[in-house]
Design a protein that fits this description.
This protein has 5 helices and 17 strands. It has 293 residues and is an alpha+beta fold.
């Protein structure tokens, strides 16, 4: 079968971790009941986006892999017989933490992990305080539904990340995400930011001839100090290998999208748009430099 049915679970966080996990599990069950064999969750989906401020106490939320979080999602994947892409706050060692995507096979085993490589440090997104950059490289994860190019949020702005996943044989690009507006931004600025986010990822789909799945959260989350806010803009979507929008969620509602992806189209598109063939790999050496002075 060339068709892969994918579920995207877009939701807001609950008042507690337990309530949030219940909400997440409900979305996963809904997607599975509607035929999804691959289900993708948003970034750091077990609770609020804590990176709005720098607070060393937050490290208490991190967990080992395997650990309690992986046990919960492994059981869910096995029960429903689905491949599940999750996003967890990993405690690797004392003082060493990662923003880590964990992919579960349909039998509940861990198919693979990806540690977020690009770490932002911007107002409301102080991730460098919490996360060590990933050290697993841009390596696709093999599963029963295909080879998954799993990246995380800030990675989605970098064409190099998508390209390296494609060059390693990824059949689908996947981006768990937590991104939103500052509520004080003008409506025009908010629109520009959201459109840029969608456009750059559609470009990755086009440039690599691959379908793409991006899953974001919704809702307004107040920072722990009570000063800042992030209004997460949802808009989770699936794009085809020519960048076409196959399905898209709203900006402000919890939704579970279930979308059929035609995996054979990548082969067809790459035959008429042979970007990998025409790459001038002999001339790209300077890409490893920070800047060409």
């Amino acid at each position: 079968m060339n068709e892969l049915v994918v579920g995207l679970v877009q939701h807001a966080v609950g008042e507690t971790r337990e309530k949030t996990l219940t909400r997440t599990a409900a979305g996963v069950r809904d997607a599975a009941a509607r035929g999804a064999k691959l289900i993708v969750l948003q970034e750091l989906h077990c609770g609020p986006y804590f990176c709005q401020t720098e607070d060393a106490g937050v490290f208490d939320q991190a967990e080992p892999i395997p650990g309690p979080g992986t046990a919960f999602f492994a059981a869910l994947a096995k029960e429903l017989g689905v491949v599940l892409v999750t996003s967890l706050f990993e405690r690797r060692a004392t003082g060493l933490y990662h923003n880590t995507a964990v992919v579960f096979e349909a039998d509940g085993s861990i198919a693979g992990t990806y540690r977020k490589m690009h770490i932002p440090d911007d107002p409301g997104y102080y991730e460098k305080f919490y996360f060590t950059p990933g050290d697993l490289g841009f390596t696709p994860i093999d599963t029963s539904v295909g080879r998954l190019g799993v990246l995380v949020c800030w990675d989605q702005w970098y064409p190099e990340a998508a390209r390296l996943m494609a060059l390693a044989g990824a059949e689908l690009l996947i981006y768990p995400t937590a991104i939103g507006w500052d509520p004080h931004d003008t409506a025009e600025e908010q629109q520009r930011q959201r459109e840029a986010w969608i456009t750059v990822q559609r470009g990755h789909a086009v440039a690599n001839g691959l379908p793409l799945v991006a899953v974001n959260r919704v809702g307004v989350e107040t920072s722990p100090d009570g000063i800042g806010k992030q209004q997460f803009w949802g808009s989770s979507f699936v794009a085809g290998p020519q960048g076409e929008i196959v399905a898209q969620a709203t900006t402000d509602q919890e939704e579970t999208l279930v979308v059929a992806i035609d995996r054979a189209r990548s082969e067809q598109v790459r035959r008429i748009w042979p970007f990998l063939r025409d790459r001038r790999i002999d001339a790209y050496g300077d890409l490893t430099k920070r800047y060409r002075d």
